[in-house]
Design a protein that fits this description.
heterodimer, A: 436 residues, Rossmann fold, 2 domains, seven-stranded mixed beta sheet, 15 helices, globular, B: 292 residues, ABC transporter involved in vitamin B12 uptake, BtuC, two-stranded antiparallel sheet, 2 strands
Chain lengths: 436, 292
């Protein structure tokens, strides 16, 4: 009797699991699924949690409104802790279900480019990753939308020129590139070297070993020996904050430090206190809650207690970056729906959508994100698509706009293309003919 | 020459900060033979607790409450984690310490979230230029704090009854037990002291970097200090901290440019390993010769 009871119980549990699994599979089949390589733990969790949550809140909002052309989103998070090996493991776990991945780390992006290309998954390294992957003829499955690191750095040099009073004032200027010594940190060295040659400024690279909690030696060298006029802060996590403190100690002005957009969040400046006042950083989207879309998320998603992060973080830099990714990704879906019909898209279809993005100023207004983002237009060749880099300055309490600068399009594009073609040659890849 | 002196002095001041972390390791290892991998996480916990308390109370009371939290952690660690592991091999104790580190970090993250928090305790950040050498009031302040802390610890271990009991436990657990020294209480006292040291380190590093989860990584900065100074030596932790701080800064500035830079993380390990050729137990480590 007892044995029978146990057997019945086991059968019921198995049956229940089967129903749940098949129910979940059915649900996923009818939804556009995204695998989210998140990092909510570890030293870089502030950035990772903000981005993932912003994206998820955006998808939650759309689901509450009935989905994109009736197709709802579904997603699953996998924790990478900003670790490349774990990122690859997450990709492997989710690849059968997902069609597009945000690696959210330059290291993971580099590791996934060959895999994603072979397995035909869209790798969208938005504003990070491998710069020359912007050349779509060689990297059909990779997108750097809105702009690559190389484009961003060319805009940074334009920003410095503007602050100094013109490009001719760059001649003889000393710029220190303080970078974390990992692939992400090293990515911009060739571009800065090329720009230094073009404009006659002196660039010196100062590597900071991971995790970058002590940068005293680098800063003494930068301020006392190299005597830099400007410093580019290309770090990540805690190593973004340390330069602001060290600079203040040596009397180096914060308004001569210009950060990468991963060193331009509230988490980077608040721990530095008054030392951060005046600090500049790049960005590519609006900050704060004063946008109709963010208000809608607050009303509908947080109003329904369905938010994915502490309410206090809604509107912060990394959160809004995730929302931006949601908006642009959805535009890719809508673009693809127009061609392939409103359905759950496969990899090739979403890739096509990404490649044919045309988010105009009028469309931006229609989406309720005016002032939140800039126009984007991608093509078979141009997997970057962004037209300008935003700059912001920390006023001691919040980020305020410091204007925009377009990347040096021709100068950078020539190098994107040359580097990508070199990669194609090394890997035996035949570039696509984008004129077809 | 003034630049060299500036790099040297600032390196020494950074070294003191490393010593603050290394001290916690040395204290616990000396008393219980546990290589406390959780020392960095303890500093993080102290920093997080202090930031929280500071929102509702003055600094002195917040510090007292933080030490209270560290005392609770110390007793919890000894009586819940290490009590069942008495007389187990050192590797088991080390694994337990690693587990403790992850546990403390995880609990910290669950309670306080992942956001970086500013810690401002009113230490002025004034920079003086003395004969072309820049010195900072913040660095000097913590240099003095570390010196006072070490002096206090030396007096405690050498001159007080409890300190002598702890040294006896460190020398031989069984002999200490046989003369009536309560082992677990002795361990608990040591962990409380290490908790206080972690609080000082947490305040020092938290004020520099902000209180964020990277703070637990300062443990890695303490490892070459321990190798160099001797894992169970308090004066060794201080002296080796100074050597490591000055060495890595001088190496980064003067050797770094010739080898591509970014050498300050591995240089202290190189220094420590070279030193081990001549002194396998570190500068002040106890030489233990055992029959095999």
């Amino acid at each position: 009797m007892r044995r029978k009871l146990i057997l019945t119980l086991i059968s019921l549990v198995l049956l229940g699991s089967l129903v749940m699994v098949s129910g979940q599979a059915l649900a996923e089949e009818q939804t556009q699924f995204f695998g989210i390589l998140a990092y909510r733990t570890g030293p870089f969790a502030a950035g990772g949690s903000g981005f993932s949550s912003g994206w998820e809140d955006f998808m939650e909002l759309r689901n509450l409104q009935g989905g994109v052309n009736g197709i709802k989103y579904s997603w699953e998070e996998c924790e990478t802790a900003y670790n490349t090996a774990r990122g690859v493991e997450c990709y492997e776990r989710l690849k059968d279900k997902m069609v597009l991945v945000h690696p959210l780390s330059t290291g993971i992006t580099y590791a996934l480019i060959p895999r994603g290309t072979k397995e035909e998954k869209v790798i969208w390294s938005s504003g990070y990753g491998r710069a020359d992957a912007s050349y779509g003829a060689v990297f059909p499955w990779v997108f750097t939308t809105p702009t690559s690191y190389w484009s961003q750095n060319s805009a940074k040099i334009s920003f410095i020129a503007k602050k100094m009073g013109g490009y001719e004032k760059l001649y003889g200027l000393k710029i220190a590139n303080l970078h974390i010594d990992i692939p992400y940190g090293q990515e911009t060295k060739p571009m800065l070297d090329a720009l230094a040659k073009k404009y006659g400024f002196k660039i010196k690279h100062f590597p900071v070993p991971w995790p970058g909690i002590d940068q005293k030696a680098q800063w003494m060298d930068i301020v006392r020996r190299f005597k830099a006029d400007w410093v580019i802060n290309r770090n990540w996590g805690v190593s973004c904050t340390v330069p602001l403190k060290e600079a203040a100690r040596l009397g180096f002005p914060a308004d001569r430090i210009l950060g990468v957009w991963w060193c331009g969040s509230e988490e980077d400046v608040l721990p530095a206190g008054p030392a951060a006042k005046g600090y500049y950083s790049a960005n590519w989207h609006g900050v704060g809650r004063d946008f109709p879309l963010i208000q809608e998320i607050i009303d509908k998603v947080y109003g329904a207690m369905k938010g994915h992060i502490s309410f206090t973080r809604v509107g912060s830099v990394y959160y809004n970056r995730g929302v931006w990714a949601g908006v642009v990704g959805e535009e890719a879906i809508r673009t693809a729906h127009k061609k392939f019909g409103a359905k759950v898209l496969n990899s090739e279809e979403i890739r096509w959508g990404m490649e044919n993005l045309n988010i105009t100023q009028a469309r931006i207004k229609e989406l309720g994100v005016e002032g939140f983002m800039s126009p984007i237009k991608t093509s078979c060749e141009n997997h970057e698509g962004g037209k300008e880099v935003l700059f912001q300055q920390w006023d001691g309490e919040k980020w305020v706009s410091a204007g925009t600068q377009p990347p040096m399009r021709d100068f950078v594009w020539e190098r994107h293309k040359a580097s990508a073609l070199q990669y194609a040659k090394e890997q035996g890849i035949t570039p696509r003919d984008c004129k077809e | 020459m003034s630049f060299f002196i500036e790099v040297l002095i600032n390196g020494l001041l950074v070294g003191i900060m490393y010593s603050l972390v290394a001290l916690g390791f040395a204290l616990i290892y000396k008393a219980s033979g546990v290589f406390n991998f959780a020392q960095g996480a303890m500093s993080l916990l102290a920093g997080l607790a202090l930031v929280s308390f500071l929102t509702v109370m003055p600094l002195w009371l917040a510090l007292v409450c933080t030490v209270g939290v560290m005392t609770l952690l110390a007793y919890g660690t000894v009586f819940i984690i290490f009590r069942p592991l008495v007389a187990r091999p050192p590797l088991i104790l080390f694994m337990a310490a690693i587990g403790l580190a992850f546990l403390v970090e995880g609990i910290g993250q669950s309670i306080w979230g992942t956001q970086a928090k500013g810690l401002f305790i009113g230490i002025p950040e004034i920079t003086w230029e003395v004969k072309e050498v820049f010195l900072n009031s913040f660095d000097l302040f913590f240099g003095v704090v570390a010196a006072v802390l070490v002096a206090g610890l030396v007096i405690f271990f050498q001159k007080t009854r409890t300190g002598r009991a702890l040294r006896a436990v460190a020398d031989d657990h069984e002999a200490a037990l046989s003369v009536g020294i309560p082992l677990l209480r002795a361990w608990a006292v040591t962990w409380v002291i290490a908790g206080i040291v972690a609080t000082v380190a947490g305040v020092a590093w938290g004020s520099r970097l902000g209180v964020q989860f990277s703070l637990s990584l300062i443990a890695y900065k303490a490892l070459p200090v321990l190798i160099l100074g001797g894992i169970d030596s308090i004066p060794g932790a201080i002296l080796a901290g100074l050597v490591v701080g000055a060495g890595e800064n001088l190496a980064e500035v003067y050797i770094g440019p010739y080898v591509g830079g970014g050498i300050q993380t591995f240089f202290p390990y190189l220094l420590a390993l070279l030193f081990l050729w001549f002194k396998p137990y570190g500068m002040f480590g106890k030489e233990i010769i055992e029959r095999v």
